[in-house]
Amino acid sequence: MIPTFKHGVKTKGRKKDTENMTFEEYPVGDFVYIPLLQHIGKPAIPLVEVGAKVKCGTKIGEADGFISANIHSSISGEVTGIVDMPCATGLPSPHVVIKNDYKYETDFLDPIQKPTKAEILDRCKEAGIVGMGGATFPTIVKLMPKTEVKALIINGCECEPYITVDYRLMLEKAAEVLKGIELVKCALGVNKVYFGIESNKPDAIDKLREVNTDGEIEFCKLKTKYPQGGEKQLISAITRERVPKGGLPSDLGYVVFNVSTVYALYEAVYLGQPLISRYMTVSGNGIKRAANLHVRIGVQLADVVEYLGLKEDVVKVVLGGPMMGISLHNFKSTTTKGSSSLLLLTEKEIREIEPTPCINCGRCAKACPMFLLPMVTDRAILNGDVEGANKSYAMSCIECGCCAYVCPARRPLVQSQRLAKKLIRKNKLTPA
Amino acid sequence: MKTKFLVSSSPHIGSNLTTKKIMLHVIIALGFPVIASTVIFGLYSLFIVLLAVGASVLGETLYNLIRKRPNTVPDLSAVVTGLILGMNLPPTVPFYVPIVGGIFAIMVVKMLFGGLGQNFANPAATARIFLSLAWPVQMTKFMNPLNYSNGAKDFVAGFTKTYVTSATPLVAIKDSIEVGGISSLNLLDMFLGRIGGSIGEVCSLTIIIAAVYLIVTKVIDWKILVTYVVTCAVLALAFYKDGYLYVLPTILSGGILFAGVFMLTDYTTSPRTELGRIIFAVFAGLFTMIVRRFGGMPEGACYSVLLANLIVPFIDKIVKPKPFGYVKPKKERKKKANV
Fold first, then answer.
1. Domains of chain B (ranges plus CATH)?
2. What are the chain A neighbours of B26 within 8 Å (beta carbons)?
3. Of A9, A242, A316, which is closest to B5 when you measure between CB atoms?
């Protein structure tokens, strides 16, 4: 029996298009637009003015408080403006516009060969590292837990369909990822490491095992099931422990890191390179050439799709995975620290929402990895019953999308859960 | 470059299953017993089933026309209701019985309560009970299976002549409960459907094939069916004298298998959680066997469906899954008063 969590769905993997694609450097165009809000928390404070000369790695935004992150220039050139534009999430954010001089001069931090705990923490903060699995939570917060840490869990599941960047990273940069794990271990002061990988990536596990010399890392092959990479589900699969309702992994003494984040930390410490680029899968039937790109932060998505060739029959553009990503209405937004994939989907790949009446089949409840009753919340919130939605534990929802995925009535169940959560917060109800 | 795209909340992909596909699976599954019963009781029984389907579809269309609502027939749920109702009728009923039944099932039991997904009672079961009250004589006239030894002449005879009515195995069971011991029943005949009974319920073999089909396609939950049948079997052991003789005849006769596969598993009128559905099936089994053993009628499957439907809201209220990582709130202990 391969360990896994309870419930969840088996999705169509659709990773074939890009899983054998090695990383390809994306050539940046004339301008980059670097958002100062790329993380959860407050936007960074701009440090540069129009006309300033910057290099790759020059700090252009200073973290505003603890829950925030530094922002660095991803190219060398001249700042031509600081404009307000909506980010991919729809939230407005100031963007620093930089004109490319194509010299790519670097202004990195000093590489550290034998880092101490303090140096790692400092570097993590300075390099503006955030969780790169999609949540973009400032990593420094995770590295300074208030409670004792039993073990570190590395998330290499990549359970979202289409995306293959983490898989390629584990294959191509196995040694670097493992070095990054050493850094996190040092910063947290833990020995035990669990490395969770879905069973559909056996060669990544083999490769990591081959390169690994650290006896404290336990590689856990987990069932290929969505959302295996969800923090709570991952912990439950590996340790059989459940994060208490409304709690965090740290309540159990675990800290979860995504492989991409670990790799970013490696780059920041050993190469001195701040978080100015990331790996991104561009896939879907709507793109002429699917690819795993190494993109700099702040590249307009329009340029990326033009580079790879857009097909006419694209009907939906998704930034992030198809289960939890955000659909875009244009290509004006840019790559950020959290954009793990850009999907160009055709009519056949997506599922339109045409809600028909709920037939009470119970499939959503059977799929929900948080053991909720999505149909109850859906019904309550559509009737304006916020209290009822709260009583059906809407606040526990992780918005993974399993319920809506399986719903034969094609109801937008995640949307109603989100609405419920929003209204519960607005009405200041205590989560049930 | 194209500049307009669909924008919606995640997830952006989904399974291919739709309500219509589920209904289609059920219709395919119902096809097995329909074919069997046509062979067993002749073409007239198929005619009855089709009339019930036609009436159900007509009822839904009419209701939507009257209420000026979009046509909901394409979701095929009315066809399923019609089929199930038709198969619950004796094979000799006059043609107007399935018509009235189909319209009643859809317009009164389903649509008046809000249509698909909103009705609290199984339309087919309720309609059958309604028909039994309206035409008690016609609704209990059962016939023997056709005898093909004289050629296929009888196959179409149902339209013109009235068949000789006969007792069903249920009556034989009912008559012998006080005495104990039944010898007149041939289990193989009951399994293959060479017995009297309602159109769809006689051939256990095809119902089991349909059940396997529905379980494999993940349309129904096997737990409801198994729990229901096992409950009935255990109660047969307990209720009847020499109970072990009655276990198989009880399950193979009447509507237990049919109700377990097609009626109790109806999503709308069963509880929403797995545990709830098991409790529901236990109660349905209990109701069935109480009617059969202690009630005035030989058959209780249909009544049990309706009765079990009525306790669904109660089950749903009590059986609520605890969310992931649920921690029992600590009860505040009363401080002992200082002495």
1. 19-318 (1.10.3430)
2. none
3. A316
